[in-house]
Amino acid sequence: MTDSPTATSPARALILSGGWPGHQPHQFAVLIRAMLEDAGLEVTDATTLTVLEDADALRDYALIVPNWTMDKLTGEQSRNLRAAVEAGTGLGGFHGGMGDAFREDTDYQFMVGGQFASHPGNIRPYHVEMTALDHPVTRGLSGFEIESEQYYMHVDPSNTVLATTTFDGQILPWIAGTVMPVAWTRPYGQGRVFYSSVGHDPREFAHPTVAELHRRGLLWAAGSLV
């Protein structure tokens, strides 16, 4: 006979790492794991999407982190992932690993609250401005400069926007002045969703504000930050 889980059992997180190798998913998985373990979560790494085929097991996680640029989900994998989040599992991630994952799956994109469309100029310096200063993810954090891919995204107007960036039009003049959400939260059923478009290269996490924004966002999605 095994003991049943107790209220003191650590929350569990699942990191899904794979897809397009240009976003260095396995290197990012090391950073994400360290963040979550330092906060007391028990972390499982998966490098195959077949883990999404066990619907019951997915609901045991407090947090699922998609770290998987592009590629495809089967219908079953997509339904199971969405059902777990709708039932209360958190979903959190960043850049292409979550915001440019499974491009053909519009149901997945609806859950995330946005989808990558372009990054004019590719890697370039830009400014990120915090906009929801009373949110637990951003409270006390200041805007910052970053050199990365400045994502132009199609976004859900129901998102709670935490941070934005403004395109200067140097690359595409017709988008000059466009204010684009960078980080947001949203509900999906009973689940919490967090996303940030920053995070093209693991070295970006050396920036203390970038690291703290993502750490808090993941913990908020997991229900460990109120």
In short:
This protein has 226 residues and is an alpha/beta fold. The chain has helices at residues 25-38, 55-58, 75-86, 95-99, 106-112, 208-221; strands at 12-19, 42-46, 63-69, 90-94, 114-118, 123-130, 144-149, 152-155, 160-166, 179-188, 191-196.
Write the layout of secondary structure elements.
Elements: E1 12-19, H1 25-38, E2 42-46, H2 55-58, E3 63-69, H3 75-86, E4 90-94, H4 95-99, H5 106-112, E5 114-118, E6 123-130, E7 144-149, E8 152-155, E9 160-166, E10 179-188, E11 191-196, H6 208-221
Parallel strand pairs: 1-2, 1-3, 3-4, 4-11
Antiparallel strand pairs: 5-8, 6-7, 6-9, 9-10, 10-11
Keywords:
disordered N terminus, 25% helix, 11 strands, Rossmann fold, alpha/beta, single chain
Protein model, in words:
The chain has 226 residues and is α/β, with parallel strands linked by helices. It has a single domain, classed as Rossmann fold (3-Layer(aba) Sandwich), CATH 3.40.50.880. It is 25% helix and 31% strand. The protein contains six helices and eleven strands. The protein has helices at residues 25-38, 55-58, 75-86, 95-99, 106-112, 208-221, and strands at 12-19, 42-46, 63-69, 90-94, 114-118, 123-130, 144-149, 152-155, 160-166, 179-188, 191-196. It has a nine-stranded mixed β-sheet with strand order 2-1-3-4-11-10-9-6-7. Strands 5-8 form a two-stranded antiparallel sheet. α1 links the parallel β1 (12-19) and β2 (42-46). Mean pLDDT is 95; it is low at 1-6. Residues 12-221 form the ThuA-like domain. Pfam families: ThuA (PF06283).
